[in-house]
């Protein structure tokens, strides 16, 4: 505010008061500046309307507050009423118009803003309504969720218990693992010790082996040297041999020449020989023909022989038949008597045998009786004297035994009192010599010999039984079980 300007012009001072922005609205510094500019030099009545409008524009009327604008209008109007008795100058009217237009523009702008805000509030309200609904549905859902959560909580508790158990087990495992670890550590330490010892041993072995290797190397080197010496020697020998063979080759060539001369000289005699060999060949051919003739003649004779052999078999069969018939005629049952010689130590004794006939008669004396009763005559098929050998006894039974091979049954048995010589006759005193063999061994030997000779045409199976009849009880003498000798075994 310029006090000098107010004193110079009374209109200017009153406009000053009217437009004193500071006094009306202290809150707007921009407006104060505007009206400071306007009031500084002239009063409002003196300023042309175009100038006022320009000044207002320059001082940015748009930036002034609505309240200050109303104050400005009111002050202008009050001032006009006081000074001009209700007449409003043109410049003030245009100014008021401008301010009113600004106020209207602002009011409409504010109305638009309010409408917009109203719309915003409505949309917000709708949004809140929908949120309220969502929260209500959420509130309903929370009870179900609560149950689910409780169940989950329960499960979590169970799982927690399980986890605790697992933890305990893991702790136990850990303890066990630690124990194992200690154990393994001990093992490792023992293994380390073993490893160390084996390492030492291996080291020792290695050193030994190295020493051996060195020794072998030295030996092999020596051997190589020896071999090289031998090689040089053998090369020398080879050279010698080559020289020798060379000289021999020369000799052989000379010999070859000699042989050639010899062959040439003998070629003529060879021709002669060929001629003579031809004549010999012819001779051989002739002999061959004669031989073939004789061979066919021989074949013819052989056929006759085969026929004769076949006839021989039939004759043999007939012979056998006749032979067995003779045996039958001789009697199916034959009784032989063998007189045992005195045993060593019985030479003083007198014999009771008085006569042994050729046809099996035997006269025995009885010194205790007189007359006719003192002699008794026995008749057998044959009587063997005390001096008769085992062979002679067997010879008489041999034909009968051979009948077995033609399918006849034969039984030979020895009968007599104890010590009379049954075993001696049937088996023999010992097996050591063939001469001592008794009837049994000789019979079997004979049968085996015959079956062997006839094996090309007949296969025999030979079976043997040997029994003893004593006190009317039959005992098997071939039974191996001595406790079970009763026949049959
Ligand atoms: N012909 C003989 N020549 C020589 N010694 C014989 C003759 N016969 C039997 N002896 C002898 O007579 C003894 C009795 O013979 P052996 O044992 O054969 O009789 P045994 O009848 O079998 O008797 P046992 O019924 O008790 O068995 C034996 O010492 C035996 O060597």
UniProtKB/TrEMBL annotation:
Residues 332-489 form the Kinesin motor domain. Residues 146-219 form a coiled coil. GO terms for molecular function: ATP binding; microtubule binding; microtubule motor activity. The keyword rRNA-binding does not apply. It comes from the Eukaryota. One of its GO terms (biological process) is microtubule-based movement. InterPro entries: Kinesin-like_fam, Kinesin_motor_dom, Kinesin_motor_dom_sf, P-loop_NTPase, Vik1/Cik1_MT-bd. Keywords: ATP-binding, Coiled coil, Motor protein, Nucleotide-binding. ATP binds at residues 416-423. Pfam families: Microtub_bd. Belongs to the TRAFAC class myosin-kinesin ATPase superfamily. Kinesin family. This is Kinesin motor domain-containing protein. It comes from Solanum lycopersicum.
């Amino acid at each position: 505010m310029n006090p000098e300007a107010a004193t110079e012009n009374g209109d200017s001072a009153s406009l000053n008061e009217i437009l004193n922005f500071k006094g009306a609205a202290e809150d707007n510094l921009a407006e104060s500046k505007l009206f400071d500019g306007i009031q500084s030099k002239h009063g409002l009545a003196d300023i042309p309307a175009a100038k006022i409008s320009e000044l207002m524009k320059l001082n940015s009327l748009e930036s002034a507050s609505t309240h200050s604008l109303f104050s400005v209008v009111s002050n202008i109007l009050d001032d006009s009423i006081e000074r001009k008795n209700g007449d409003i100058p043109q410049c003030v009217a245009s100014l008021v118009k401008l301010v009113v237009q600004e106020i209207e523009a602002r009011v409409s702008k504010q109305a638009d803003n309010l409408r917009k805000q109203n719309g915003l509030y409505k949309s917000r309200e709708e949004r809140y309504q929908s949120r309220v609904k969502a929260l209500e549905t959420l509130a309903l859902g929370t009870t179900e969720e609560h149950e689910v959560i409780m169940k989950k909580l329960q499960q979590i508790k169970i799982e927690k218990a399980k986890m605790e158990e697992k933890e305990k087990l893991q702790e136990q495992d850990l303890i066990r693992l630690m124990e194992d670890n200690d154990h393994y550590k001990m093992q490792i330490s023992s293994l380390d010790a073993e490893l160390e010892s084996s390492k030492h041993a291996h080291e020792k072995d290695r050193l030994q082996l190295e020493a051996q290797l060195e020794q072998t190397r030295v030996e092999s080197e020596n051997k190589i040297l020896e071999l090289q010496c031998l090689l040089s020697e053998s090369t020398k020998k080879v050279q010698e041999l080559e020289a020798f063979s060379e000289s021999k080759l020369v000799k052989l060539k000379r010999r070859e020449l000699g042989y050639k001369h010899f062959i040439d000289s003998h070629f003529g005699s060879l021709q002669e020989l060929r001629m003579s060999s031809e004549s010999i060949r012819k001779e051989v051919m002739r002999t061959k023909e004669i031989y073939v003739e004789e061979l066919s003649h021989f074949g013819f004779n052989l056929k006759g022989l085969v026929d004769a052999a076949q006839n021989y078999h039939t004759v043999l069969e007939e012979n056998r038949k006749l032979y067995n018939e003779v045996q039958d005629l001789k009697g199916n049952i034959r009784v032989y008597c063998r007189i045992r010689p005195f045993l060593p130590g019985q030479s003083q004794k007198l014999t009771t045998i008085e006569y042994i006939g050729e046809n099996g008669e035997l006269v025995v004396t009885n010194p205790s009786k007189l007359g006719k009763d003192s002699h008794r005559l026995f008749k057998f098929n044959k009587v063997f004297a005390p001096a008769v050998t085992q062979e002679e006894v067997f010879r008489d039974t041999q034909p009968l035994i051979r009948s077995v091979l033609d399918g006849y049954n034969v039984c030979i048995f020895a009968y007599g009192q104890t010590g009379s010589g049954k075993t001696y006759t049937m088996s023999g005193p010992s097996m050591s010599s063939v001469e001592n063999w008794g009837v049994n061994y000789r019979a079997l030997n004979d049968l085996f010999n015959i079956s062997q000779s006839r094996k090309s045409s007949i296969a025999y199976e030979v079976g043997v039984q040997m029994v003893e009849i004593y006190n009317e009880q039959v005992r098997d003498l071939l039974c191996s079980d001595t406790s079970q000798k009763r026949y049959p075994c």
